[in-house]
Amino acid sequence: MTHLYLHIGVPKTATKTIQLGLRLNQAALLAQGYYLPSQGSMANGGLAHHNIARGIASHDRYNPHNGDLPRLIKEIEGQPHERVIVSSETFSNLLRPQHIQGLRDQLPQHWQVRIVVYLRRQDELLHSWWAQLAKTMQRTDPFDVVGPRLVNNLWAANYERLLTLWEASFGQENMRVSVFEEALQQGHIFHHFLRTCDVANATDFALPASTNTTPSEKTLVIAQAITSALPPLRYVNPAETVARRVYYNEVLLPFAGQAGWNDSKINKLTPRLRESLMAAFDDGNRAVARRYFQRDVLFGAAPTPPPVTHHDTHDYTTDELRTLIYFSAAAHLDQQTELIAMRERAGEVNAALVEGQRAASDFERLKHENAQLAESIRQLEQELALRRSLPLARVSELLHGAQRELQAGGVRGVMHRS
């Protein structure tokens, strides 16, 4: 019998770290009889089966080339191992009961399905979600504005409603619910996840690097200043959304690390805001606590809060901004060089395919490489197009009068100079 462990998140509970751990330990898990399917997973270095959930919900980011649920089932049925792990926090964003029931109906009835889910304090979850939107250049609104809106708009944060939907289709007895903060107290989250999936000797598995760290105030203000100079996301295509995320991860974040900006993390959760956010979920949290943990309180006391951070334009120096500009420009040139090399290799592959005088296996390999190169070139061209639109790429304009702009209008004035 197939035992499927379906990890549904929720968001901001180290899901990507878990997925990277699965990728890192794929061979070791297979030796224990745990299969990690490729259908529906994304090319992000981990094992994130986002495409399965997106296909079920007909999401606009669904890509049929990355696999769907029928192909996932076929892949699982075609291999000999009885235990399977599928992971994506996107499952917790399925909004309609028919989506979840449709998933249950399509999965073979003889499969034993366990739903693995982590619950994080909602005030911390909403703050982390806001920081994610800000640092990936999607939103510029302050947290005291965004946080209360997310109470009703972030579906996955309403745990009582979320779990009730999944229970209705898979049964409460098949729900494996953990409190995120309590899991962290028991060691590394990846080892806790493996134990939740009944993996023997979980602590013997290699640990992945942590991901999605919270930025500093200085890093986030820069990201928001850049965002405010770009068109709103509703006016751009999904590829540019990805390009903005890449810019943050590959340019701004490494620079901030070198500059020491991220030594202190941003915190906009005042005690009063924490209290108001948690109060909105109090009844639902109590219901979950009683149903799954036989207690009245789902989460313990709030963590000792770090100081609330505030932005001061004098935190930045002209030298810092100048260095960031050069750092961005250098990354831009590196990507241009990489793109030229990719195009040259694509030309060689196309020429080899045209010859048609190769063994069948070699021909298939070349076709696969050609498709991968085409996708990589498309993504890189999109990222470079974004770089050309960023004020930071306009080095000469920004350098001219940077100190005057800094004194007159702060960092936002510098970013808007062009």
How would you portray this structure in words?
By secondary structure, the chain is mainly alpha-helical. It is globular and about 65 Å long. It contains 18 helices and five strands. Strands 2-3-1-4-5 form a five-stranded parallel β-sheet.
Which secondary structure elements does this structure contain, and how are they paired or packed?
Layout: E1 3-7, H1 15-24, H2 26-31, E2 34-35, H3 50-57, H4 69-77, E3 83-87, H5 97-106, E4 112-119, H6 122-135, H7 143-153, H8 159-170, E5 175-179, H9 180-185, H10 189-196, H11 217-228, H12 238-259, H13 271-279, H14 282-293, H15 318-355, H16 360-389, H17 395-399, H18 402-415
Parallel strand pairs: 1-3, 1-4, 2-3, 4-5
Largest sheet: 5 strands, parallel
| β-strand number | 5
Major sheet: order of its strands? Answer: 2-3-1-4-5
The whole-number mean of residue pLDDT values reads 84
> What's the helical proportion of residues?
55-70%
How many helices? The count is 18
Strand content: 5-15%
Which sequence of SSEs, written as H and E, runs from N to C? Answer: EHHEHHEHEHHHEHHHHHHHHHH
> What structural category characterises the helix and strand content?
mainly alpha
**Rough shape?**
globular
Low-confidence stretches: 391-403, 411-418
Q: Ends: how far apart? A: 63 Å
Q: What Rg is obtained from the alpha carbons, in whole angstroms?
A: 24 Å
